Amino acid sequence: MRDDDSSTEAVDARLAARLAELRAERGWSLGELAERSGVSRSTLSRAERAETSPTAAVLNRLCAVYGRTMSRLLSEVEAEPALLVRAAEQPVWEDRPAGFVRRSVSPPHAGLRGELVEGRLTAGADIAYDRPPVPGLEQHVWVLEGALEITAQDVEHHLAAGDCLRTRVWGPTRFRCTASEGARYALAVVLP
């Protein structure tokens, strides 16, 4: 097994434990969480037992229910946040079936409202989020390589390398890679 695989498995195990903790803290059954999130009981159960890593869309729904950004949730399963995060130490999370890789470049910190994320989408990747993890979340998407089609507030935006879209997220969003070579982008997230 490669080191990358064991590192990913360790993050998945800690994420599973944190998801179970969050549900227990609220006193919710799997059924109650399923109703609140729109995610099936079986998917929630498998995610909490680390039998599967949740997809980006599932994780987004859970973040919305728990009132956290995805980065904040993922930072909760990492060690104490450092002021300086070396490239080799930046947490990476993957949704392989969706063609999405997410690197937390500047993880969230309790005293700060902003964070920086690097996203990579394979050619044709299409990720839809039915709601923001935190309503009114400010996002700045800067395309570094390739091209993206981003739909926010029912408006479709076509971004090429160098373009930046900034928006507040109140409803569904969609990220679609329209470049044959894939896309890489920086995402600045600021809590309201």
TL;DR?
By secondary structure, the protein is of the alpha+beta class. 30% of the residues lie in helices and 33% in strands.
Regions with little confidence, pLDDT below 50 for 5+ residues = none
Question: Strand order, biggest sheet?
Answer: 1-2-3-10-5-8
SS field, number of helical segments: 5
Percentage of residues in DSSP E strands: 25-35%
Q: End-to-end distance, in Å?
A: 42 Å
Helix/sheet category: alpha+beta
Instruction: Sum up the overall morphology in one term.
Output: globular
Biggest beta-sheet profile: 6 strands, antiparallel
Query: For the residues shown, what is the average pLDDT?
Result: 89
Total beta strands: 10
One letter per element, helices H and strands E, the order comes to HHHHHEEEEEEEEEE
* Helix percentage: 25-40%
Rounded to an integer in angstroms, the radius of gyration calculated over CA atoms is 16 Å
Describe the structure.
There is one protein chain. With 192 residues, this protein is α+β, with helices and mostly antiparallel strands. It is built from five helices and ten strands. It has helices at 3-26, 30-37, 41-48, 56-66, 70-75, and strands at residues 92-95, 100-106, 114-121, 126-129, 137-145, 147-152, 155-160, 164-169, 173-177, 183-190. A six-stranded antiparallel beta sheet has the order 1-2-3-10-5-8. Strands 4-9-6-7 form a four-stranded antiparallel beta sheet. The longest helix is centred in the first third of the chain and has 24 residues, at 3-26.
